[in-house]
Write a structure and sequence with these properties.
alpha+beta; Rossmann fold; 4 domains; seven-stranded antiparallel sheet; seven-stranded mixed sheet; 16 helices; globular; CHAT domain-containing protein
């Protein structure tokens, strides 16, 4: 399958790189011929390579380039330093265009100059052209481990998760050096494939032989490459000859989460002495409070390095890490445990369920309801108090502001069918004439890096809507009345549970009480979708539909789109079924962002947030396009900035990103046209 994951195609302007699984593309413009090349010239793995017979390549966006020579980092180019000369005394110059949605490498045989502007980046060489290499970030599990429902067998199965790590150095905090852990399935006896090798880290985690305890430390065990073993007494982290008591002052799952965040942050700081040396904001903040010999820490083996990390006050590191992307609440059953590989792959915090208050869903009455008005109000669990923007829920019921992933939806994302066309197909269906205002002109505006094939249909019959959901669209947006047992059609109600199979990847069911109908679509083959948990008023639902379409077109995931809309009181009773991390489009800014602004008077004081996607997972970095800014981990809150009147126009119009101005959702380019 690897051979068709990613293509390099010649165009009239140069070449286009298209990732058929992730549905992303990246262009390089130049004048010159394209020829075959081998992949062995690259320092890091590349799946496809071509020769570019040109001394000048243009990236049609503001891009950051990291350069290495003789195995050492030698330069970083940014818009702050518009012209950078990179010398080469011997060997090859390896360039990594990190702003791309896939791994893009350029190798030069001579010195290179890089000119970085607000809308393009020019890379020129005095050598004999460039060799281009690319690699998809798409990653698959290497094996399947069979386990019984016995907690000790689960410990042994979870102990194999570290086999997915490609290194035990601090660089494993980069997403591309954390391979997917093996999948889990239930069986009559434990069966671990012989080729799975857990790294020799000299780290163990002792926990009681209970599924809840094993689940709680699963992500920590993966990240440390640790062996999980039964505890003779209390839970303990054993690192070399050192022992650390776990769960003495806070519950085990909370301590495991705190440790994971602490150790991960320390790795991201120490890795700045490694492959890529950048000015990381979190490093400068931590080293103001703690004296660290970062080069020495980088040189240590993982156990010794981890012991040094554990000497650093966790309260200090917690102040330097702005957030974490996702928490998953998992009811501790063996069947639910088979989802652990997918959860730890995104470094999710794993918590057990807590008792929640039952609340009655009361719709906000703006306009008529999108239901038949006869359905009883649904009782829901109150919203959980997790601190992460995404909250996944694996178990019965579904609290407010949580999503419900399934094992099948995770597997569908991993086994996504390659797509040859660089277009995203969307069908919008409106089955009620009173709801046509949702079909505004800016519904699903064309994204900057890929095009939409948008079809709008109205008043579909049951047979016609069935054919839509049996189709292969990337996204279906349904507008109309809904209830638990069906959605409205021109000739009656269609129960989507009657559709046995769908090729639609994701959806919005923008009617009342669409949870059960959305779950049916995920069961039938969809990766994920947005549903309502209760009755919804038409006016608010229309606004949600319009704004959700823009957030998805910009590049936010399903879950983060709802997270943004809840901040403007538009999605309190909407949720994601299936994968809330699913993104419809690649983002022109790399990591999708959100700004909070009190007012627009200059200088604009803005709080910036950056979020993860499948392409920019935890550990990736982002940098605001403002003068004099550092690199940041894209873990949520970035910083507060004063944006001068001279900077405002370029900053707010470079891409069209969401801005919350005094509690109202606006769009950055709109701010300069209203």
């Amino acid at each position: 399958m690897d051979a068709i994951l990613i293509d390099i195609e010649e165009t009239e302007h140069g070449v286009e790189i298209f990732d058929q699984i992730q549905r992303t593309r990246f262009e390089l413009h130049f004048d010159g011929a394209v020829g075959p090349a081998e992949t062995d010239v690259f320092e890091f793995p590349a799946k496809e390579a071509v020769r570019l017979e040109t001394g000048r390549v243009t990236v049609p966006t503001s891009a950051t380039v990291w350069a290495r020579s003789d195995g050492e980092h030698c330069a970083t180019t940014t818009v702050d330093d518009p012209e950078v000369e990179i010398p080469l005394e011997s060997g090859l110059l390896q360039l990594n265009v990190i702003s791309a949605p896939m791994k893009v490498y350029l190798v030069a045989t001579g010195p290179v100059s890089v000119q970085t502007g607000s809308s393009k980046t020019v890379i020129a060489t005095e050598g004999d052209g460039f060799t281009l290499g690319v690699r998809s970030p798409h990653d698959l599990p290497a094996a399947t481990v069979t386990t019984t429902d016995d907690p000790v067998d689960f410990m042994r199965a979870v102990s194999t998760f570290g086999s997915g790590l490609q290194t035990t150095s601090p660089e494993r905090s980069w997403q591309t050096l954390r391979g997917h852990p093996p999948e889990l399935q239930l069986g009559d006896e434990l069966d671990i494939p012989t080729h799975l090798d857990r790294p020799q880290t000299d780290i163990q985690i002792e926990v009681p032989p209970a599924l809840e305890s094993v689940f709680a430390v699963s992500t920590l065990a993966y990240y440390l490459g640790a062996e999980v073993v039964p505890a003779s007494e209390e839970s303990t982290l054993i690192v070399g000859d050192s022992r650390y008591r776990l769960g003495a002052e806070v519950p085990l799952h909370r301590e495991a989460s705190e440790l994971l965040r602490h150790l991960f942050l320390m790795d991201t700081i120490v890795r700045t002495e490694g492959i890529y040396r950048i000015d990381l904001h979190e490093r400068s903040e931590l080293t103001k409070e703690v004296e660290l010999d970062v080069p020495e820490l980088y040189s240590l083996p993982i156990a010794a390095r981890t012991n040094e990390y554990l000497d650093v006050d966790r309260r200090v590191s917690a102040n330097c890490l702005s957030g974490w992307p996702v928490t998953t609440t998992v009811t501790p059953t063996a069947e639910n445990g088979t989802l652990l590989p997918y959860l730890v792959d995104e470094l999710s915090l794993v918590h057990p369920p807590e008792t929640k208050e039952v609340v009655e869903a009361t719709p906000t009455l703006e306009g008529f309801l999108r239901s038949d008005n006869d359905a009883p109000a649904r009782q829901l669990l109150s919203a959980s108090d997790v601190e992460t923007p995404r909250h996944q829920w694996v178990g019965r019921d579904l609290p407010l502001h949580a999503s419900r992933p399934t094992k099948e939806s995770f597997r569908r994302r991993l086994q996504r069918t390659p797509k040859e066309e660089a277009e995203i197909s969307i069908t919008v269906v409106c089955n009620d004439d009173q709801m046509l205002d949702e079909l505004s002109a800016d519904l699903y505006p064309d994204p900057e890096l890929i095009s939409f094939d948008l079809s709008t249909r109205t008043q579909l019959t049951r047979d016609e809507l069935t054919q839509v959901f049996r189709g292969t669209d990337d996204f279906v947006h349904y507008i109309g009345h809904g209830r638990e047992d069906g959605v409205q059609c021109s000739d009656g109600w269609l129960d989507l549970r009657e559709i046995a199979e769908t090729g639609v990847e994701a959806f919005l069911l923008n009617g009342c009480q669409s949870l059960r109908q959305g779950e049916a679509l995920v069961e039938a083959g969809a990766i994920g979708g947005v549903v309502s948990l209760s009755d919804v008023g038409n006016t608010r639902a229309s606004r949600l539909g319009r704004e959700l379409s823009k957030l998805l077109a910009y590049g936010h995931s399903l879950g983060i789109s709802l997270h943004v809309l809840r901040q403007v009181d538009l999605a309190q009773q909407f949720a994601v079924v299936g994968l809330d991390g699913f993104s419809l489009c690649q983002c022109p800014d790399g990591a999708p962002k959100l700004l909070h602004v009190r007012d627009l008077s200059a200088p604009v004081v803005a709080s910036m947030y950056a979020y993860q996607t499948e392409l920019f997972k935890l550990g990736s970095v982002t940098r605001p396009h403002l003068d004099g800014t550092d690199w940041y981990l894209n873990t949520g809150y970035i910083d507060e900035y004063e944006i001068s009147s001279e900077e405002s126009h370029d900053f707010f119009t470079a891409s069209n990103f969401p801005v919350i101005v005094d509690g109202t959702l606006r769009w950055s380019q709109q701010l300069f046209t209203d």
